[in-house]
Amino acid sequence: MGNVESVKDISSGVGTSDGVSSSENIDATDEADVLSAPESLVRRLEKPVEPVELRDGLRQVLLDGGDWREGFTDDICLGVWLWSRWQPVLEPAGCSREQFVDVVISTHRELWLWLLGDRRWEQYVSGLAGRVARRLPAPTA
């Protein structure tokens, strides 16, 4: 029963029986065990520096009347650019390039806000990382 209470205390953030808060009982190596699979994956994804030239090029294409749905699978696509950086983490977790690009396409509103400067890059890319992680297949036991 003591082990169950310890896990419950750690996950709820309640102090443990020794009076030390649960966050002080978790060292860096144990933290990944407490995180959910999506949270753990998000932490492993590199948050790349904003691709300013790519942003400016995509924004200009859209402002010139280009169809936002075209170009999401070619080499000037933000999804393809990010896939080249996130593939080593996402592919072993069960996410294909096509699935990833589909998630990027599903964020078209947030992508548009970033392209126009109404959303910061950090906001967009961290939101995308969370959405990708939540859409991964459930881990098999």
Tell me the total number of β-strands: 0
| Residues in helix, % | 55-70%
Give the DSSP E fraction (strand runs of 2 or more residues): under 5%
Number of helices: 9
Characterise the protein shown here.
The protein is mainly α. It contains nine helices and no strands. The chain has helices at 2-12, 22-25, 28-34, 37-44, 52-63, 78-90, 97-106, 108-116, 121-134. Residues 1-35 have low confidence and may be disordered.
List the defining traits of the structure above.
9 helices; mainly alpha; 62% helix; 0% strand; single chain; 141 residues; globular
Describe this structure in a few short sentences:
The protein is mainly alpha-helical. The protein has helices spanning 2-12, 22-25, 28-34, 37-44, 52-63, 78-90, 97-106, 108-116, 121-134.
Please write out the topology.
Layout: H1 2-12, H2 22-25, H3 28-34, H4 37-44, H5 52-63, H6 78-90, H7 97-106, H8 108-116, H9 121-134
Helix pairs in contact: 4-9, 5-8, 6-7
